[in-house]
Amino acid sequence: MGYKEQIDINRLPVHIAIIMDGNGRWAKNQGKFRVFGHESGVLSVKDIVEGCVDIGIKYLTVYAFSAENWNRPIDEVNALMELLISTINNEAETLNKNNVRLNAIGDLKSLPQKCIDDLANVMEITSKNTKCTLTLALSYSAKWEIIEAAKKLITQVQSQEINLEDINEEVFAAQLTTHHIPDPELMIRTSGEHRVSNFLLWQIAYTELYFTETLWPDFRREDLFEAIVDFQKRERRFGKISEQLN
Ligand code: FPP
C-alpha cells in the first residue's frame, strides 16, 4: 500500500510549512552548478502543490528565500530572483486551473521591483481561488516579523488605539504576516538538517517537526504523503496528558 492510501483524510493537517533545503548539494552531487538545483527544486514545488490539492491540504507555506539568503553570492541571488519571476508567471495559469491562491509573506519591499509587480499581479489573478493557499516566504525572517508586529502594537498603544493590558496572544498574532492563515500543524525540512532557521518561529509553537534526508529536488508528493502518515501517528497533547485527549 502506498502512503497516500494510508492517510486518514479526516485528520489532515490544515497547514503544512516546508523548509526546502538541499538544492545546492543535489546539484553538486551531479557536478552541476547550484542554480540547476534551484531550477530542479521548482519541479518539486509544483509536484507538492499538486499533491496538496489532490488530498485537500488547505494551506502550504514554502520557505523560498530567507532574509539571510541575501548574503549568498550575488549571481546566485540574481538567479533565484529570476527563477522566482519566471516561475510565478509560468505557473499562474496552472494555479488557476488547480484553484490555488498565491500569497507571499516576508519583507517583500526588499525584492526587485519586477518581482514585487509580478507577485502582486499573480496574487490578484489567483485571489478568488479557494482550494489551497500557497504562501511563498520571500526575504522572510521570523525575528523580523515579530519585531515588526511589536513595533505596530507599540505605535497603536502610543496613539491610544489599544490599551497595553489588552495585548494578548491573539492580538499579537493579528499583527503577523500570517494573520489570515492558521498555524501549521506540520513543518517539514528536507536534506537532513535539523534546524528551523528563523522560519515561522511564533507560528510553530505547537507544530510537529518532520525531518527527512531527502534533498529538496528529489522530494515528491509520495514523500509528502509519507510525512503526513508519520504526522498522523503522533499524539498531539498541547501540554495535556494522554488520558485527557479523548
Ligand atoms: C535551499 O537549498 C533552497 C533555497 C535557498 C531556495 C529554494 C528555492 C527554490 C526551491 C526554487 C524557487 C522557488 C519558487 C517557489 C519559485 P540550498 O541552496 O540551501 O541547498 P544547500 O543547503 O544544499 O546548499
Automatic annotation (TrEMBL):
SUPFAM superfamilies: Undecaprenyl diphosphate synthase. Gene3D superfamilies: Decaprenyl diphosphate synthase-like (3.40.1180.10). Pfam families: Prenyltransf. Binds 2 magnesium ions per subunit. Its EC number is 2.5.1.-. Mg(2+) binds at D21, E208. Keywords: Magnesium, Metal-binding, Transferase. GO terms for biological process: polyprenol biosynthetic process. It comes from the Bacteria. Belongs to the UPP synthase family. NCBIfam families: PRK14830.1, uppS. PANTHER family: DEHYDRODOLICHYL DIPHOSPHATE SYNTHASE 2 (PTHR10291:SF0), DEHYDRODOLICHYL DIPHOSPHATE SYNTHASE FAMILY MEMBER (PTHR10291). This is Isoprenyl transferase. It comes from Pedobacter insulae. The lineage of its organism: Bacteria, Pseudomonadati, Bacteroidota, Sphingobacteriia, Sphingobacteriales.
